[in-house]
User: What shape does this take?
Amino acid sequence: MARNVFKYISAVFAAFFTCMIGISTAHAQTFTNTTDATIGDTTRCGVTNVVRNFSVSGVGTVSDLNVGFLANHTWRGDIVATLSSPAPTATTVTLIASDTAASGNDDDYNILMDDSATVAINSGSADGPHNTAAPLYQHTVRPSNPLSAFNGRSANGTWVLTMCDDFNTENGTFREASLIFTAATSADLSLVSSSSDSFPQVGDTMTLTYDLTNDGGLTTSGVTVDINLPAFLDYTSSSGTGSYDELTGVWTIPGTVNIGTSSITLTVDVVSLGSGTIISEVASSAQPDDDSTPGNNVTSEDDYDSISIFVQPPPTPPSLTCPAVDQFTHSWDAPGTENGWSSGDLTDNYTAGGIPLVFTVSGNTGNLGQVAGVGAPVTQNTYTGGIVPAEFSLAFAADHANTAQEIVLTGDINDGIGVQAMQFTVFDIDSSGWVDRLTVTGELNGATVFPTLTPSARNFISGNSAIGQNGNAGNTEATGNLTVTFDAPIDKVIIGYGNDVSAGPDPAFQIMAVHEITMCPRLIADISAVKSVEVYDPTNVGLYMTPGNEVLYKITVSNSATANADAEDIDLSDTLPDNVRFVSAATTGFTGGAFGSPDLPAANTDCTGGVCVIRYSGATLPINTTGEIQIRALIK
Assistant: This one.
């Protein structure tokens, strides 16, 4: 009697509430089972199940199914419930998965399971004990697995709800369940994208796959999907449903999109280094979508997806361009020695190849920890990067509180010139609970210089950062090594050591070490330039600079014998005065570049108004040589 009164009151309340908020239930058909049964020690999962059937008729094809569930239980996280559609083509969905950890000691279920609910089962406002005496199906939640798996199947026949208890000692009672079928009012398009390789190399061919699923009750048409490829990927072909236009970046699905999945696979070539996110989104559809809007660029909607691609450099580090005989190295040594770094020091000075080096540690230095029982930073030979016999390196240990924090090691080359090139290896850039992120930049006279980074098995490259992946490298393994190469002059190197955002809000303790640093001496040209003018007339030597006579302008450039590098990218430009006419121009001594860009004036051009411009751009001048531009002109 009390149960019947409760259900009557609940029904009246539900009808009243529906009326108040203006929701029509004309298209909903509900099938309910109210036969009590024990869910507990006598119905253990894998041994005995509670089974309740629902005889469904007059519905036709499933377009949208919600399931109500009411049960008492003193440890509801033990309950497992699955729902199967009618045979012979039954589909089974686990509606309630065992959740003994998250909501184990919460009591009872009074829920309506709906795929479009914002709250997941046993979370948010639905967490905590439920009141089975409250209005029926009080909490609307997303089930453990989507009910949309039933969409498009025949609803008519016998549905089977199976329940069991996944642990002992706690018991409860199944009270009631309802299958609520609603007529379709929209399509429901969702998009999932994937790539065959997230870390390709230049020259690789890879595939991108896009799956568009219509889970709604209505078919739709006029469906297009925007897929914009980054510049480092070159489209070559596609296969699957519809067509892809490489110029517009649009995948067009022709005709009617029925319930189910349409797919296309794009084949692309990796043509250059780079990293980026390939964004895809449903751009158009004839039918409305109940949980997303085409083309609105809302990342949280299910018609929007993205793939991150990080093109990796070749696995072999580039070689330094200077001859080996000219290279010099700063090698670390044990603490307390000339090239050692004493535990906990935040600055130290060294000399390599006659060049003073000053290293400073800054950033979140309060997060520094110990390496092999010794406070960091410190030189040590426990973390060796696979080098045998072990060599010393400068090690850092850090326990950052969040992914915004980092330790910064700055190396200044304090000779006022810098070095032509630099290369070094960092050990143990890897991932576990920390996900290392090492960011490296250089400077020359305050201008930023970017290095080439070469990863190993435990890290990948994104821009000028190396990010840990694929697990933890052992302290004597090379799998976490990162090679840093500067092939342009620098006078400062800056190394930031922290965590990638994927490490989570509180990263774990981490260690890295900087091995020896090899450098090339800075290449410096020593250029001087002289401009001169003289009378030019081979047949009448001694003529004066008077109208009608020719003059010879000369721009003479020298690269001194004391220089140690060719002078490259020389740009020379001169504008002839108004009182002459251009005759001709020639050069000697220079190589490369472009003479006459813009074009030289035509012979006998009047130079009034600065129209006679003589330019040589991009020229090269070897050491201890002279180059010259000779310009003949007629005095007006």
The two ends are 123 Å apart (CA to CA). The chain has four domains: 2-182, 189-311, 324-521, 527-635. The longest strand covers residues 510-521.
